[in-house]
Design goal:
The complex is a heterodimer of chains A (about 80) and B (about 210). Chain A has about 80 residues and is mostly helical. Chain A has four helices and one strand; from the N terminus they run H-H-H-H-E. In chain A, helix 2 runs antiparallel to helix 3. In chain B, about 40% of the residues lie in helices and about 20% in strands. Chain B has one domain. In chain B, strand 5 and strand 6 form a beta hairpin. Classes of the chains: A mainly alpha (about 80), B alpha/beta (about 210).
């Protein structure tokens, strides 16, 4: 129950609102609940990815690849899209 | 099958990203950065939204395995590398199109591609009916029959400049795949530029064609 509440509170507000709205409706809400379930599972996967990333960010024995970082920080100096 | 434009999923951008982008984001996290190009792209894909446009990640088993193995090779603990890789599988699985990782049996859908690993990435993009392939290695995907144009100029930290380009590959069934550089993709998303073949042709089509080699 504690986990369920924790997950619920971590969901985006619009998703929480829609879940509450749907649970108040009749059984025709099936497909919408299925979509809500998908979004909840997606959020859980995202959290799991972010947790793993946070651990890797503090891995003391992993050096930063400076060349890769430089490529990652290239900036656009000319583009027709402004 | 024609795309149903009334289906909200039809507006979803299905994206295959080069494994280098995923690894680069972890490298930037490790360096304490918060908004590099790769970090923004991973953010778009793991939150399911690129400036309001729904996104769907698509990868093959081979690409996920490569990601996991690279993380381990550079020194990350096996358990956390496995966890990150498994989370990406679930992000695919619970995305708008509910995709499973693709099995790619070697070879390449386009014999013009010299590198079979690139061929596998392209095969994954075609299998996923992806809209977009994000890669730094643009020249590796340039084939004789794709459309290709210069898009922008970027500056490296050493002060040197580099021209970027994009490609549009059209399959026999008429579906298209855009191949774009990570920096361009982020630039376009953050400026609300529509990432579609139509807008790429309209915006860059008059630019000098990018040489294929």
């Amino acid at each position: 129950m504690e986990n369920a509440v924790r997950v619920f509170t971590l969901l985006p507000k619009d998703l929480r609102d829609r879940l509450v709205e749907i649970t108040a409706e009749d059984k025709t809400a099936g497909p919408r609940l299925e979509e809500m379930s998908r979004r909840v599972l997606f959020e859980l996967a995202r959290l799991r990815y972010e947790q793993a990333s946070a651990i890797m960010a503090t891995s003391e024995n992993v050096p930063v690849d400076e060349e890769m970082l430089a490529d990652d920080e290239m900036v656009i100096v000319s583009s027709p899209v402004v | 099958m024609p795309v149903d434009q009334t289906d909200p999923r039809a507006k979803t951008l299905t994206v295959v990203t080069d494994v280098n982008v995923l690894v680069s984001a972890q490298n930037a996290n490790r360096a304490g950065r918060t908004a590099t190009t790769s970090q923004r792209i991973v953010g778009y894909l793991t939150t399911g939204s690129a400036n309001g446009t729904p996104t769907q990640l698509a990868l093959s088993f081979k690409m996920i395995d490569t990601y996991r193995e690279v993380l381990k090779r550079i020194g990350h603990a096996a358990a956390v590398a496995d966890s990150a890789a498994q989370a990406l599988v679930e992000i695919m699985r619970y995305g708008p199109h509910r995709l499973e990782p693709y099995v790619v049996f070697g070879g390449t859908p386009d014999p013009a591609l010299r590198d079979t690993e690139d061929g596998g990435v392209l095969a994954t993009a075609f299998a996923a009916r992806a809209d977009l392939l994000i890669t730094d290695n643009l020249s590796d995907f340039a084939t004789d029959d794709c459309e290709s144009w210069t898009t922008s100029v970027v500056r490296r930290s050493d002060g040197s400049n580099r021209n970027l380009s994009c490609q549009i590959h059209t399959r026999p069934d008429g579906r298209t795949l855009m191949v774009v550089h990570p920096v361009d993709f982020v630039h376009w998303v953050e400026r609300g530029f529509e990432v579609s073949p139509k807008s790429l042709r309209a915006t860059f089509g008059s630019n000098q064609p990018k040489p294929k080699s």
